[in-house]
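Q: Hi! First time doing this. I have a protein sequence and I read that you can turn it into a structure. Is that right? Here it is:
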Amino acid sequence: MEELIGFVSGNDKRDKILGLLGSQGPLDEKLISKRTRMVPRMALKILDELMEKGLVEEKESLFSLTEKGIEVENKMKGLK
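A: Yes, that's right. Below is the predicted 3D structure, encoded as structure tokens:
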């Protein structure tokens, strides 16, 4: 778990996307890009990284946190 928290907190963009999905729920790529003020290609790259670690999943073009993602996001909230 500590490794995943370090993975997310070590990159501001990962932290932004994880926090956004934690507070807003499932979103599509376009809204994630807009709300985090990232170009779509960068947002998709970060989403891919988070999916590889099992923190985010995609269903019907909507990205949302997995159980593991929710746990990491909650622990990170406690650190701020």
